[in-house]
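Hello K.,

You asked for the raw outputs rather than the summary table, so here they are, unedited. I folded two proteins back to back in the same session to keep the settings identical. This is the first:
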Amino acid sequence: MRPFIFNQFDDKVTVVCTHLIPSLSDVTTPEVAMKPFFASLVEQSRSEITTIVETFKNVRPLLLLGDFNVNGGPLVPGKAVGEDQYRRLSKLFNTQVTSNCTFCAADQNVYNLNSYDVPTVIDHIFGNGMGIRNVKRVFTPDEVSIPNNGERVPLSDHFGVMGDAVCSPGARRVAPRPGRMGNKGRKRIQQ
């Protein structure tokens, strides 16, 4: 599993960055190294989110950000990737969803020609003991791009998000504990 890396910022805020496996129900095979542990990508995604929730649910102040591969944007019935897991995260952590897709169709991002046809918001910023405000999509081709055969293309198949994080009044610092990863996993992350 590849759930997260984390560190303390200014010895006050725990900042966690993640890139989780997509929760694709139409793809049943998990990552090759994970086949002995999970029957599907959906199962692997749920496990990764459970690890994050259990490790950081009591950590304050906390910023939890990255590619969660679960849709928090306007949902299209029957096409929402990981909607149940997004709702699980948003019940525990504060968030604000950008109004623009972060994983967009090919007309907005040339890398996504053969990908999921419904634009989604799967890149998020969550807070615990922190309010999240003014979230917007960034790194679109008109802002940042690279040359490719005379054309400007995006940096990635996803667009990033940024926002303001405001510490909640009275939020006291609670440090993360290793959770299910154990001390061995914690040492590896901190190196």
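The second followed immediately with the same parameters:
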Amino acid sequence: MANKIQIKRGLKANLPLLDVGEPAFTTDTKEFFIGDGISNINFAKQSDLEITNSQVLDLSFKLAGGTANAITLSMQPLTDGYSKTFIASANNAGAATKINGKPLYKPNTTIAPNLISGKAYTVWYNQAGDCFFIKASAEGDAIAANVLAGKKFSNDNDTGLVGTMPNNSQVIITPGISNKFINKGYHDGTGYVQGDSELVSANIRAGINIFGVDGKPSVVDTADATAGAADIVLNKTAYVNGNKVTGQATIASLGGAHYITGPISPSQTPVQLIHPNGGTSNYYLITVSTGFMPMGLLLLDDRGTYITHYVNSINYFNDPYWSSGGNRGNIIELSRNPQVYVNSTQCVIPSLNYHKTFYYHIWGN
């Protein structure tokens, strides 16, 4: 008969303190112990090993079964906080999804997460809600177009995503006659819309508003004006079709005549004027400013009595005080008396009387 090696055995309640390296087996609880001289060390039971093996298998990443929105997974009995990691086998497009018949939500919401085929996800069971929550790894609703090109980011859907937003850096816009589009993307904050110091009211036509600046009322469109220099009064200016025009027209060129009238007193200092017969007399000169070339002149006294007159065709002043039966002794010729004259600036008129107020009537071009 072969030799047998037997170890100490018996009921667990009767297990003594084992020596160092001494083994023992409890026949009632089916446990195995070994001593270290201080305590008995309990080795795992078969059932414990089976549970441990099951738990180890549960930790491995398994490809999910079922469909994109009705996932099936092998799991341990559900307890509050129990977690499971799996690999999604299909995209769920963010639609309502269940795992083994229980709803799957984003953390602390009732919103389904977005699952992408081939990605690993960890979920945990919530006993109070009888549902699964996906483990939060990253949150956010940014997409690639929201993040600067080349920069990485994460959102509700995934981690390690790369942005695609263009980097426009500094953008300078010059205004024009039509809208200018602002390119989509990142701007570094140093860009601007160009201004112009010439954008002032004086440079804008009346009735026009450019970027909030109203045109000056006196700035008008002269393109339809038809006047020329000959139509504008002498030395006055006007704008025609954008050009400044200095007038050349006179009253005569426009078919009209000047006329002035008013009271005036003669000088108190006499001057000697020569008559056609060679004689001389003292006269008192009356000076009237005109501003035009007289064609004729009439002088009356304060009672309306005729004193003298002048017309440019005869070139002399008539003097009724020297009438002598129609002879020429009653005139003062301008050619012989330079003290009296008529020009475009003024008229100097002779009078024998210095203490009266006279009234003149002068007309001309």
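The chain is about 5% helix and 35% strand.

Happy to rerun anything if the numbers look odd on your end.

Regards,
P.
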